[in-house]
Amino acid sequence: MGLFSFIKSVGESLGIGKADAPPPADKISDAIKDLGLNVDGLDIQVEGDKAIVKGAVADQATLEKVVIAIGNTMGIGSVDAQLEARSVGPAPVLHTVVKGDTLSHIAKKHLGSANKYPAIFEANKPMLKHPDKIYPGQVLRIPQDD
Question: Most buried residue among 90, 99, 105, 145 by CB atoms closer than 10 A?
Fold first, then answer.
């Protein structure tokens, strides 16, 4: 799928990473499994601040969720997604949260209506637990006909 850039000094620490030291690959794999993201043959390698993820997923939405879950981990600066999606959809649309952003603001920008913020929230579950809990530097996926 490609290489995706993230801000390595922000993100979910999961108790396993710091901006200057990415977490070990097995901890990232455990976090992906804990989120309930199913990846057949999940293989994650960490080289510096880059995570390389391989495996197969059911669809484009799951692929994108795996990428942002890994990329939004503190200490990870990029994700090389070498995942195979059995059902491919449109190219992902990602949004990096800036100070002052809300899901409503992001929905208006990308989906044409602030009232469509629940679609963005749902598209980023299980990584997002509450629609008001986003932070600058976090990367969110914008749904494209999931």
Answer: 105
